[in-house]
Each structure stands twice: as C-alpha cells, then as structure tokens.
Amino acid sequence: MLYYTQIIYVKEGQQDQFNLFESHVLPLLEKYNGILLYRFRPADDCVIEANMDKPYELHLVSFPSREDFEGYAKDNDRLKYMHLKDASIEKAMLIEGKML
After folding, report:
1. Do 73 and 50 form a contact (C-beta atoms < 8 A)?
2. Could you read off the pLDDT of 21-53 as tens digits, one per residue?
3. Which range of residues forms the domain containing residue 33?
C-alpha cells in the first residue's frame, strides 16, 4: 500500500474553483482503488509548530500500487478538469510514503 500526502496552497479568492475541481476528481479515486483517508483544512489554533506557510488543505490518500495512482493521475475524466486546478492552486507538495 502506498500513501500520498498532498499539501495544497490555493490562490486567494479561488477557493470555489478549487472545491469545484475536487468535487469532480475525488469520486474518481475509487475507480483506481484509491481511498481518501483524510481531507482537512488546518486551523491556526491547531498548529503546534510550523516552518512553512499554512496550507489551505491537506490530503492523505492511499493506493494499492503506483500503477493505480498513475492511472488516477492520467484519467481522462480527471484531466478534463485540470483547468480548474491550474486556475486555483498556487502551489502543492506531493509526498509518497509507505506504512512502516
């Protein structure tokens, strides 16, 4: 099982565009055996320590294999909505990991 953490920074005023993107692409996870384990927005009072800007959202997703993840990333239905992502995301960090 592989785990992907995405730290997402949304452009000011583009939250609705980002949420529209998410509403279209997150349901596609299941098609590729992916599971959205966490999707949350960190509040200022929940941060204990930080050495980077506070992101808009954090996602933790699992896939059985890298091939499943790549299938999701390249899905034609997902790619149709990339313009919403491109218009709304300032930057994002993707971290791949395994359970130890």
Report:
1. no
2. 999 999 999 999 999 999 999 998 888 898 999
3. 2-53+62-98
